[in-house]
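Duplicate of earlier report; VOC family protein input re-posted below.
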Amino acid sequence: MSVELNHTIVHARNNRESAEFLAGILGLAAGAEWGPFVPVATANGVTLDFATVPAGPITAQHYAFLVSDDEFEAAFERIRQAGITYYADPRMALPGEINHHHGGRGLYFLDPAGHGMEIITRPYGSHPVTPGR
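Output:
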């Protein structure tokens, strides 16, 4: 059997709120609560299991989602409609902009727990680099 990522746990202040936030942006569904988790399943079989951490700090993580051009457009529209601040860069120095890395489009935004979320239409390294850039 080849090794595949099956699931990861995402800490949140409110597992339902964070799961529904991400699922809503991506056009997915948040699943039924299973023990302490609210799952969001992706098309490639990886599940993000949101778990409530009621006290103490949450270490911000980064989650990147590869989406089609149509899915990007739909998610981007939901982000704009919700008034969510988005950025072209992971340092969040370019608000209100998207990037065109790797011959595609991408953007970054924060979820309710402060995790950095990224949507991209082309995987990193998928576009040839022009010499001198």
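The radius of gyration is 16 Å.

Merging into the original ticket.
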